[in-house]
Amino acid sequence: MDQQHAPRPAAHRRAPSPGRRLRRRVLLGVSAVAALALVGGGVAVARTVVDLDTGIHRSDIHLPVAGASASSSAVPQAEGESNILVMGLDSRRDEDGNVLPAATYQALHAGDGSDGGYNTNVLMLIHIPAGGGPAVGISIPRDDWTTLPGAPDGNAEGKIKQAYGYELDQTLRHIVNTEPGVSHDDAYQQARSAARQEEITTVSQFLGGVPINHFIEVTMAAFYDIAQAVQPIQVCLNETTSDTYSGADFHKGLQSLDAAQALSFVRQRRDTSGSGVELTDLDRERREQAFIVALAYKLRHEDVLTNFPLVQHLIDTAKQDIALDSGFDLLSFAGDAQRFAGGGITFQTLPIVRYGVEDGQDVNIVDLAQVRSTTAALIAASDHPAATQSTTPSTATTPSTGAAQGTAGTGGAAGQGAGAAQGAPTTSGVPSTTTTSAAQPLASGGIPCVN
C-alpha cells in the first residue's frame, strides 16, 4: 500500500503523549472555518463563497434523513430545518492526502505527514431551525463508547471518533487489493467518502436517529495559516491556570492570544500549577466552543472580512483542507448563518456518566437514553425557544467524578440564561464578558469566560 496515503492506527491512550497532546490542534481549524462561515453575508462575502465553492472537495454520500426507511432516522424534521455535522480530523495531511509544507510542520511542532490519524476528534452537530430562530451547536465528546453500525475493520463497538478511521482503512485496503485498475488517488478519495458515510451514520444513530442534512469536514492543516492571519484573538478564563503539557500559561480574565497561545488554550485539559483548578477533557470541549465564539466575534466586530486579500487567503487555505457533501449550498448557508456571530447560536456538550475502560481503551461511558433525550430537548428548545426556555437540559458533568448533574438548566437555547454572552462591545471598545459554567449554554455574540 502506498504509504503516502495509508491511514495510521488510531491512538487509544488517555495519558498525555506528544501525539495526543498535539492532535487537538485540528479543532482550531474547525473553529476557524466554522467561525468564518458564521459571519457570512454581503456581496463581497457572497463572491468569495462562490470562489470557494468552485474548488472545494465534495463527497456524494447518503445522508440520514427523517423517515426514509426503517433503518434511517427515527426523528422527525420540519420543513426548513437543517442539521450540519462538523467533523475535525486528526490528520497531518490535506484533503488529497498530500503532505504539508515543511514550514507548517515545524511551526506546529506536530511531527510530519506520518503522524496523526483519521479519528474525528471534533464532532459537533449544528441545528439550524426553520424561520430564522436561534441555532444550537451540540458537542459530542470524542471518546464516547458506542455501537459502530457498519462494524468497520471488524469493530462492532468503539469510540465514536473511531468510525471514520476504521472505515477508511477497511475500504482503502479493499480497493487496493481487489481493484488494481483504480488509481491510488481515486481509491483514497473513495475511502474518504466511505469513512464520512460511516461516521455520519454512527453519529445519527448515536443521537437517536437525528437526521443529518449536511457535513463539514476539516483537517488540521487549515489552522496555522488562519490563526496566523487573524491573530490576536481574545479569550476569557475564570481562573489563572498553567499546564506544562500543553504550554498553557494564562491569567484570569480577558486576554489576547497569538496563534501559539491559541493552540495551548484549546489543548489544555489539566492544571499543573498546583492551584487546585480541576480540568478534564470535557473542559476542552467547552474551550472549543468558546474559541469558535471568540473568533466569530473578532471576524464580525473588527471588520476582518473587509480585508479581501485576507479573505482570499483563508479561502485558498480552506480549499485544501475542508470537504462538504455534494448538496451543501455555501451561499445559502452564509445567509442563514449571518446572524450567528451576533448571538444567534448557543453551544452545549452532551453528558457522560463516567470514565471507564472498554477493550483496553480509556473511554467515556454514556447513558444512551440520556444522550438522546438531551439532544432532542436541545433541538426542541432551538425550534421553540419561548416554550422551552425554562426546561432546557443541563449537560454538565463534574470534573472529579464524571457524574451527570441534574437535568434542568437556567438558560434557553437562545442564550437567555445567566451563561449568555452579551455580544456588544463596551463604550471603551473592550468586548463584554460573562462568566459561564458547564451547566449553562455558551452563547455567541461576546467573549465568554470559561474554565
TrEMBL record:
Q: Region Disordered: start and end of each range? A: 1-20, 382-451
InterPro entries recorded: LytR/CpsA/Psr_CW_biosynth (IPR050922), LytR_CpsA_psr (IPR004474), TAT_signal (IPR006311)
The family note in this entry says:
Belongs to the LytR/CpsA/Psr (LCP) family.
Q: Which residues form the Cell envelope-related transcriptional attenuator domain?
A: 119-299
Instruction: Report biased composition (Gly residues) as residue ranges.
Output: 408-420
**What Pfam family does this protein match (any one)?**
LytR_cpsA_psr
Protein name (database record): LCP family protein
Return the NCBIfam families for the record. Answer: lytR_cpsA_psr
**Could you tell me where the Basic residues compositional bias lies?**
10-20
Provide ranges: composition bias, Low complexity: 385-407, 421-439
